[in-house]
Amino acid sequence: MPGLLPRLLLAVILFASLPAQADEAAAWAALREGGNAIVMRHATTVPGVGDPPGFRLDDCSTQRLLSEAGRDQAKAIGVALRERGVEAGRILTSAWCRCVDTAELMQLGPVEVFEPLNSFFEQGDVSDKQTDLVRRLIGDWKGPGTLVLVTHQVNVTALTGIFPASGEMVVIDPNGQSIGRIPASFR
Question: What are the backbone angles phi and psi of residue 176, rounded to the nearest 5°?
Answer without folding.
Answer: 85, 10
